[in-house]
What we know:
By secondary structure, the protein is α+β, with helices and mostly antiparallel strands. The protein contains nine helices and eight strands. Strand 5 (326-339) and strand 6 form a beta hairpin.
Amino acid sequence: MVVDEQGDTERFLADLTGFLNELAPASELQPAGVAPEAPDLLVDSDQLLAETEALLSTCAPALAAESSVPARPADSDNTKALDERRREIKNAQAAKRRLKYRNKLKNERQTLLEQEKTLSEDLASLQHARKKVKSLQEKSVTVPLWKGIATRQMEGRLVAEEQQRRLKSAVASRAKAIAEVKEAMRQELCGASCLNICADAGVVTKQEILQLDADDVALFEDYLQDMDIVYAQTNQAFRDSGVEECPPTSYRVEPGRKWEGDTEYFESLDVLLIPFSYHQASSAMWQAMLRVHQQNDRQHYRGVADPDNTIAVKLPISCSREAGGSVNLLVHLVTRRYVEADRMVIVWRAMTEGEDEFSGMHSDETGWCVVRPNQAESAGYEKMQTIMQTFSRFVPVTVAARRADKAQADQFAKLVVTSGEEDGLEISRMMESLLLNDDAHTGTTVLQSTGTHVSGGR
């Protein structure tokens, strides 16, 4: 039994040595310099053998107790276990080699896939660039001649448009400068320098030269702001005057003295039928006022917002007195025209100042003039196509520091009325002249045969 166990031990050691030899490199692959280490290997083997024997001796009692188990089958089981161990080790080594090889193949495949993707992108980019170059070449070959001409013409047009914009800007700048110079020249010609030249030439006297000072400008500005308010009162003013809607003939209401509380004022009314069309009469009326107020002795205020329809003028008036001699008056007048669909309305504000013995006296005047088509036939007259109605109201004022007696105040009021009538007669003559020149008419005294005259706008 002991011999058999010794034999099994020797076989086990032989198998173990073979297993170690398989794990170790082949002897023929070892360099020559390792031969001296062989005794060490033998010592290790003897040590391993001694330890194995000691292990087996400790296991002998347990094996002896197992009487039902023969020794041979135990040795056979050990052999099988060793063989199974060897196979497992070989299989593990083989699996490790296969896993390493598989990972290597996987890495190589991933690298090849990435290279394929990069090369595909490069190929697509090159194909696109080649196609684009080919397309450009085809287009450059097939572009017709007219397209090139049109391109050149478009470029020339853009250049011309840019030049035109620069020229327009330059023209606008020059036009503005010219307008400013022109306005400055006009102001100069209408101002004191022009009047001085006229005085030196004998056209007007030095006494007739008028200057606009700060008080004049302030007064004109106040009157200009009142124009729209006075215009809004037109209908009410004529209703209060009692004028007829369709008067049968021309007539005039002489200025009458009226009182409102302690305030004294005068009102006058003129109704004139004109045998000319509404458009002719309204145009002649405004043109006559413009011409009358363009005389050399009148100083115009140029700060109006609507010069085509507004007159602001400072003028001297010389009136004859009943007792003989003349009296000088100074008038500030602002007149504005409003053209509606079926009528023309002219409104004005005026302040007349007395001089010399009437110094400190003045009158504040407000007036309305309406020119409109006549809607009814006038009995006993040729068809009068146009009606002109004029209504004015002025209030004489005396400064507190210059209290005058009643007779002198009445005389001043009479002078104001007379000056307004004379101005109205001058406008009437100018208007009649314009109408007769515009349309030859049989009646040469159309505006004065009825005994009335235009009193609008002074």
